[in-house]
Amino acid sequence: MIFTKTPIAGAYLIDLEKRGDDRGFFARVFCRDEFGEHDLETQFVQINNSSSAERGTLRGLHYQLAPAEEVKVVRCIAGALWDVIVDIRPESPTFGRWFGAELTAANRRMMYAPRGMAHGFVTLTDDTEAFYLVSAFYAPERERGIRWNDPRFGVEWPVTPIVMSDKDRDRPDFDPAINLR
């Protein structure tokens, strides 16, 4: 795997290191030792899969509070999506900054989102699927979210979201005194 640091502290893009021949290729998607060499999470308790029928479907921006904070490793396995992380760790040197990358079935790129990130994506094609490793179990009482177009962060989405849950549409603007409790 090829690990590329992003502008967000502790976040990476991960590309497959393909080994190919006339049959196709082989590549690791996860290796505990390689993740450990980069001081990344090596224990995952869930693998999630989401499917979105329409281009412009938004999921996010979601996170969980401690002690249920999550590391996520996200990969697109069908179609294409724009994956976004927002650093909401008050002690972080990149607090308040966001980063986005195009993940597609064709590029096989993954986003590593460390604990303390709000995470979301918008689909760039119809029939898009995301597959992701998660380091903590889902804890509904610890679940929180940020509105996708909160002006505090100014995320630049490549397409305007047109399909989203009522919960995501109605999220409030970020307020550390409220959102981090």
Indicate the proportion of strand residues. 35-45%
Q: Quickly name the level 1 CATH class.
A: Mainly Beta
The helix fraction, in percent, is under 10%
Mean pLDDT over all positions: 95
**Could you give the count of β-strands?**
13
Which quaternary structure do these chains form?
A: single chain
Shape: globular
Quote the CATH topology.
Jelly Rolls
Strand arrangement across the biggest beta sheet? 1-2-10-7-12-5
What is the helix tally? 3
Low-confidence stretches: none
CATH superfamily: Jelly Rolls
- The overall number of domains is 1
Largest sheet: 6 strands, antiparallel
Secondary-structure-derived class: mainly beta
SSE run: EEEEHEEEEEEEEEHH
What does it look like?
- This protein has helices spanning about 30-35, 165-170, 175-180, and strands at about 1-5, 10-15, 20, 25, 45-50, 60-65, 70-80, 80-85, 100-105, 110-115, 115-125, 130-135, 145.
- It has about 180 residues and is mainly beta.
- The protein has a single domain, classed as Jelly Rolls (Sandwich).
- Strands 1-2-10-7-12-5 form a six-stranded antiparallel beta sheet, with no helix packed on it. It has a five-stranded antiparallel beta sheet with strand order 9-8-11-6-13, with no helix packed on it.
- It is globular and about 55 Å long.
- The termini are far apart.
List the helices and strands and how they pair.
Elements: E1 2-5, E2 12-15, E3 19-21, E4 24-26, H1 32-37, E5 46-52, E6 58-64, E7 72-78, E8 80-87, E9 98-104, E10 110-113, E11 117-123, E12 128-134, E13 143-145, H2 166-169, H3 176-179
Antiparallel strand pairs: 1-2, 2-10, 3-4, 5-12, 6-11, 6-13, 7-10, 7-12, 8-9, 8-11
